[in-house]
């Protein structure tokens, strides 16, 4: 379980996240939505231990988050930067040595599913294929928490479709919690269990997608419109 | 251990440009000096002298390497720091790689310096070896030592970037470094306290060359080594080891706890 306790994060004079309290249960796929600059990436980095809260604390399964929580968290950054001199296979092999939980067999399955050539150098990959590589590296880890910051951003519809299908196929929803930030709500709506809205650094709502759909007859987009209007 | 050794292999790939640049620049300098020396009939002498200076310049090798390598990681901190390994492990992987590259480069330069130096410095084979080893070991140690200070400065720079623009952070670190050099190396380094903690356990090295004298005119060239009976202190090495260990620990702590992506 991921727990935020009165978490505030400030960058100089800008408050990226304000007094956030949150509990995210295990085994859920959770969408993190919000406008640009709302604090989604900051929330992701806080959980990954890549930034530290100005106030408050974050715990994963009772363990205080530090940078070394990387042993429990697989983080997909919105950035595309990898070591350009490696090939796809070398990148996978390198990750396999850095994380004990990395499942190389699963990586090979996802790579084959994503149809990514093993011998291509990372520097020669298209944006879409770099997006696929990020998915392979993130989903191949058998960790309780998967964080995916804008995994569909800037990709063509076919790649986006393969990534969403890859999520359904390769995430172990019994054991893994996936927190996914995206602007492509329609494309991920069908796989989300919960949705979390951030507005101006505040967590403004946290809903179960099924409840939203059946009790309030709303899709995520309508729910978001109501929040942001 | 496998994670760390794999990281070292990656660091060898990251650092290739620095190593190749050092070797290529040296070969270019050798060619220029060799050709110029050939015109005046002193090819090997010129190559020998240039190689001696180039070898001494290796003092900066690891510092330059670390600045490059850390600069590469700065562009992908989310990748480098998203690792369960202690920051000390991340940094030592870089230091070990840099030291390996330094030794290869310095060996290349040392061999050329020896071949060139044979022409104008007359010394018994044993003295050549003793001086060469002393110089080699001290350049490697001094280069590692200096680079640890640079690592700390870079980690402070990354930390300060949380609070200010990169340029300002760089300026603060630059000014701070000079202030530190003045306070630590100049004021404290000349104090009686420093002498008391470093000047113990003396080892007599015998005659050690400490300067190269040149006598050059339009018709002839002569070079000779000037040396003295030399002592070194174990205390100095122990103090420096403790100091750089503390500095390295602080740098690792900053990277682990304070640097943000």
UniProtKB/TrEMBL annotation, chain A:
<protein>
    <submittedName>
        <fullName>ABC-2 type transport system ATP-binding protein</fullName>
    </submittedName>
</protein>
<dbReference type="InterPro" id="IPR003439">
    <property type="entry name" value="ABC_transporter-like_ATP-bd"/>
</dbReference>
<feature type="domain" description="ABC transporter">
    <location>
        <begin position="2"/>
        <end position="225"/>
    </location>
</feature>
<dbReference type="Pfam" id="PF00005">
    <property type="entry name" value="ABC_tran"/>
</dbReference>
<keyword id="KW-0547">Nucleotide-binding</keyword>
<keyword id="KW-0067">ATP-binding</keyword>
<dbReference type="GO" id="GO:0016887">
    <property type="term" value="F:ATP hydrolysis activity"/>
</dbReference>
<dbReference type="InterPro" id="IPR003593">
    <property type="entry name" value="AAA+_ATPase"/>
</dbReference>
<dbReference type="GO" id="GO:0005524">
    <property type="term" value="F:ATP binding"/>
</dbReference>
<dbReference type="InterPro" id="IPR027417">
    <property type="entry name" value="P-loop_NTPase"/>
</dbReference>
Automatic annotation (TrEMBL), chain B:
<keyword id="KW-1133">Transmembrane helix</keyword>
<feature type="transmembrane region" description="Helical">
    <location>
        <begin position="12"/>
        <end position="35"/>
    </location>
</feature>
<feature type="transmembrane region" description="Helical">
    <location>
        <begin position="47"/>
        <end position="68"/>
    </location>
</feature>
<feature type="transmembrane region" description="Helical">
    <location>
        <begin position="234"/>
        <end position="255"/>
    </location>
</feature>
<feature type="transmembrane region" description="Helical">
    <location>
        <begin position="167"/>
        <end position="188"/>
    </location>
</feature>
<keyword id="KW-0472">Membrane</keyword>
<feature type="transmembrane region" description="Helical">
    <location>
        <begin position="89"/>
        <end position="115"/>
    </location>
</feature>
<protein>
    <recommendedName>
        <fullName>ABC-2 type transport system permease protein</fullName>
    </recommendedName>
</protein>
<feature type="transmembrane region" description="Helical">
    <location>
        <begin position="135"/>
        <end position="160"/>
    </location>
</feature>
<keyword id="KW-0812">Transmembrane</keyword>
């Amino acid at each position: 379980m991921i727990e935020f306790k009165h978490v505030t994060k400030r960058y100089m004079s800008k408050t990226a996240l304000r007094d956030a309290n949150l509990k995210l249960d295990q085994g859920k796929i959770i969408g993190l939505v919000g406008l640009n600059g709302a604090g989604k990436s900051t929330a992701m980095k806080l959980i990954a231990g890549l930034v530290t809260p100005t106030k408050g604390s974050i715990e994963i399964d009772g363990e205080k988050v530090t940078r070394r929580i990387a042993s429990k968290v697989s983080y997909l950054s919105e950035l595309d930067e990898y070591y350009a001199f490696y090939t796809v296979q070398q990148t996978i092999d390198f990750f396999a040595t850095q994380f004990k939980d990395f499942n190389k067999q699963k990586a090979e399955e996802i790579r084959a599913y994503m149809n990514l050539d093993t011998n291509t150098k990372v520097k020669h990959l298209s944006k879409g294929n770099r997006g696929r590589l990020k998915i392979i590296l993130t989903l191949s880890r058998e960790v309780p928490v998967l964080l995916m910051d804008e995994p569909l951003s800037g990709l063509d519809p076919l790649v986006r479709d393969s990534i969403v299908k890859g999520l359904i196929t390769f995430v172990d929803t019994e054991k893994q919690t996936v927190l996914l930030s995206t602007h492509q709500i329609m494309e991920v709506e069908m796989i989300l269990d919960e949705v979390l809205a951030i507005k101006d650094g505040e967590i403004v709502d946290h809903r179960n997608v099924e409840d939203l759909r059946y009790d309030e007859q709303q899709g995520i987009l309508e729910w978001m419109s109501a929040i942001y209007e | 251990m496998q994670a760390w050794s794999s990281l070292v292999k990656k660091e060898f790939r990251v650092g290739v440009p620095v190593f190749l640049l050092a070797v290529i620049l040296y070969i270019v300098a050798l060619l220029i000096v060799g050709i110029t020396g050939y015109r005046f009939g002193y090819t090997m002498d010129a190559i020998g002298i240039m190689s001696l200076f180039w070898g001494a310049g290796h003092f900066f090798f690891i510092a330059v390497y670390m600045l490059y390598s850390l600069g590469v990681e700065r562009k992908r901190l989310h990748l480098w720091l998203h690792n369960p390994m202690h920051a000390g492990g991340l940094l030592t992987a870089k230091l070990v790689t840099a030291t390996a590259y330094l030794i290869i480069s310095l060996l290349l330069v040392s061999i050329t310096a020896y071949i060139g130096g044979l022409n104008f410095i007359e010394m018994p084979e044993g003295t050549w070896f003793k001086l060469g080893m002393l110089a080699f070991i001290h350049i490697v140690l001094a280069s590692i030592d200096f680079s640890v200070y640079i690592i700390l400065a870079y980690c402070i720079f990354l930390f300060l970037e949380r609070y200010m623009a990169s340029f300002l952070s760089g300026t603060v670190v630059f000014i701070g470094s000079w202030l530190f050099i003045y306070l630590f190396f100049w004021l404290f380094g000349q104090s009686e306290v420093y002498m008391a903690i470093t000047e113990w356990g003396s080892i007599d090295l015998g005659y050690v060359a400490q300067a190269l004298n040149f006598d050059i005119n339009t018709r002839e060239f002569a070079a000779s080594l000037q040396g003295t009976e030399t002592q070194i202190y174990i205390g100095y090495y122990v103090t420096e080891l403790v100091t750089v260990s503390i500095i390295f620990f602080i740098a690792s702590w900053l990277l682990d706890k304070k640097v943000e992506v």
